[in-house]
Every structure is written in C-alpha cells, then in structure tokens.
Write a structure and sequence with these properties.
Distance between the termini: 69 Å
Shape: flat
Number of helices: 13
Number of strands: 13
Strand order of the largest sheet: 4-5-3-6-7-8
Strand content: 15-25%
Structural class: alpha/beta
Order of helices and strands: HEHEHHHEHEEHHEHEHEHEHEEHEE
CATH class of the largest domain: Alpha Beta
CATH superfamily of the largest domain: P-loop containing nucleotide triphosphate hydrolases
Number of domains: 3
CATH architecture of the largest domain: 3-Layer(aba) Sandwich
Length: 372
C-alpha cells in the first residue's frame, strides 16, 4: 500500500510498541507513528501558551523515557525512519538526559500550578460560583464560551483549538459567575496526556458546575461514544460528584424531528443527566441554558446595608462592587444605603467590614433569598 499510494508516512489508530514501530518502518521504508504520537503532533501545532507547550513537552518526554532504552537498542541495529541519530548514545546516558529534562519541566509546571492555585483562592474569596466548560474536542465549547462571555477566544473546526484554560466573569440572570474554557476531551485519551494536563484539568475538579458540551448534529453512535468518553474522563479526574448539565450543541444543523429522536434516545440511556439543546453559534436556547445554570448555582441572598459617608467608605464601596452584585445605592444626608446580593459567606464579610465603619445591616438582620 505504501508503494502503490506513494505514502510518506504510516499512521496507526492504536498505540504501538517501539519494536513494532521499528519493524514496520523497516518493512515499509517510511516513518511509522501511532495514535499517541499523532495527538502530540497536533498538540504541538495548537499550543500557544507557555503552560500548554510545557505540558506537551512533558508528555512527549515521558513517552521517550518509557521507551528510551529500547529505542537506543533498536537504533544501534540499523537506522530506520524515525530512529535516526540515536546510535551514538549509550542507553543509560540517553535515559538520564531525558529524565533530567522531565524533572526540569515538572518544576516549571509546578510553579505555574502554584500561581493557578493563588488565582483560584482569590476567585474563591470573591464568593462567585464557578463553571467549567468541558466536552469532546470540536464540540463547540469555545463558541459557547464566546456566546456566554461576549469574548472572542479562538474558534476553529479543527481539533484541540483550546489547550489552555481561559476564565472570565459572566452574568447569569443578574448574578456574577466565573466560567472557564478547558482542553477538549478525546476518546481513549492516553494516560500520559491526562497526567501531563492534570493541572489544567484541575479547573474542572474545583468548579461548582460542569457544562458538558456535546455535538448533537453527529450520528447517534458518535454522540454516544463521545459522551461516554467525556463522562469517563470526568470520572477519572475525580469530578464525577460535581453537578453537570449536558448542552446539546449545534441544533441548527439538524431537523426538530432528528433532535427529538436523539434526545429521546439519550434520555433512555442517561436519564439522570439534564439535557439542554442549544446552538451556541446562533444563540438559540441560551436563555434556557442560563435558567438551568441559575437553578443549580443560585445561592445568592439579598441584603440592604447603611454606611456612613466618609473617606474610608470609598475603598470599602469599591471592594463591595468587586465582590457582590450591587443593585442600588441611595444617599440621604451623610448616610448611604446599599442594596446588593451575594453568597451568604460574602454577605458576612461585607457586614463585618461595614460594621467596623459604623454601618449596619437593615431589616433587623434578616436576609432574603434571591429565589423568593
């Protein structure tokens, strides 16, 4: 086949052992790669941030580390495509070189992880609910992210457009929340890649809600396969206990009859999942999706505070605007009245700081639920 087609490369859809790659390259006379190597090559082309590049390099080096001694042994037997330039290395020297590189990259990623943890703590202090966008690659996650945030993160019909997380504040029916776009999933995702991208996937673990995006325009067999793969990865990273909404995206590409049939079938298999059909590209049913998000995450309460008008009050007021939804401010002589909503724990912090400046919570300390 290689000869007849004039192929320059052979790509296998499964993972191969190094000796298999060597024997196939010897047999065909062209380079042979497997599924993992292909995914890594795509990742290399898509990586744009320092973290993504380091994670991909770590995955590549871990692959090399696992196969270093065998690869050197085979390279010494005679050069084949993909095995050039290794014959001069002794196995132990080559292995140690790769091991040191892996150690350095892990140290750099640990620094990034610590920075990410600091950002996560700061976001938690704001008391805002967090949403993680997850889903199979090319399901339309980034398009939905743009639709909800009014941002313009890269969107492409190719796979793995997003390899790093992006977090933005959004407004869901009057409440501020944080939403994060994450790396796309893939069926039979190699464990090497799961480990390499663990710091990125952690954003999903620490979220209050997972918004799982599924391309419903595909054949039902593909939908079931990709949904199953996505749910499996969510389980593997330890996020299966987090509330989840399945956004059935791209409904503009299919007929209502087709959509109803697919939703019926998905409901029979995944009756415990909340399914919301949408079109992120055309904004169809996004109001329904927002209502479902609000139903799950709405934990805000409303409160009215009075605060003396003083120089110290301006910095406190600025902080309140950053941490809560301020609905109204009125001034009466030397006192201002602030009507706001926020999670209970944030209300407690606001009350404490306001009372230190001589202010107080109105309504005899009563709070009213946003849902009431």
């Amino acid at each position: 086949m290689v000869k007849d087609l004039g192929a320059e490369r052979v790509i296998f859809g499964n993972e191969l052992k190094i000796v298999q790659v060597y024997n196939l390259a010897k047999l065909t006379g062209v380079e042979v790669i497997d599924r993992l190597q292909l995914i890594l090559e795509i990742f290399v082309r898509r990586a744009s941030t320092r973290e993504a590049k380091l994670q991909i390099e770590l995955a590549r080096l871990q692959y090399e580390l696992a196969n270093a001694r065998e690869k050197v042994r085979l390279a010494k037997m005679g050069e084949q495509p993909g095995f050039h330039g290794l014959g001069k290395y002794e196995a132990d020297v080559y292995y140690e070189t790769v091991r040191r590189q892996v150690h350095k990259i892990r140290e750099r990623l640990e620094e990034i992880r610590r920075t990410r943890e600091i950002h996560r703590i700061r976001r938690a202090e704001m008391g805002l609910p967090t949403i993680s966008l997850a889903g199979y690659t090319n399901s339309g996650k980034s398009t939905l992210f743009n639709a909800l945030t009014k941002e313009n993160v890269p969107v492409d019909s190719s796979v793995f457009t997003t390899l790093s997380t992006v977090t933005r504040a959004i407004d869901i029916l009057g409440e501020r929340m944080l939403i994060t776009d994450t790396v796309g999933f893939i069926d039979r995702l190699p464990i090497t890649l799961i480990e390499a991208f663990r710091s990125t996937l952690e954003e999903t673990i620490f979220s209050d809600l997972i918004l799982l995006v599924v391309d419903v325009s595909e054949p039902l067999s593909d939908i079931l396969r990709k949904l199953s793969a996505s749910l499996k990865i969510i389980w593997e990273i330890g996020a299966s206990g987090i509330p989840l909404i399945v956004a059935l995206n791209k409904i503009d590409l299919i007929s209502p009859e087709d959509l109803n049939e697919k939703m019926k079938r998905l409901g029979e298999i995944y009756g415990h999942l909340k399914l919301v059909p949408i079109s992120a590209l055309h904004g169809i049913n996004l109001d329904v999706l927002k209502a479902e998000i609000a139903r799950i995450l709405r934990r805000y309460v409303r409160a009215r505070f009075t605060l003396p008008v003083a120089q110290e009050s301006s910095s406190l007021l600025s902080w309140i605007f950053e941490t809560a939804n301020v609905h109204e401010i009125t001034y009466n002589s030397d006192v201002m009245s602030i009507y706001l909503s926020a999670p209970p724990e944030v209300i407690d912090k606001i009350r404490s700081r306001i009372e230190r400046l001589g202010g107080r919570l109105e309504q005899d300390g009563r709070l009213e639920s946003v849902c009431s």
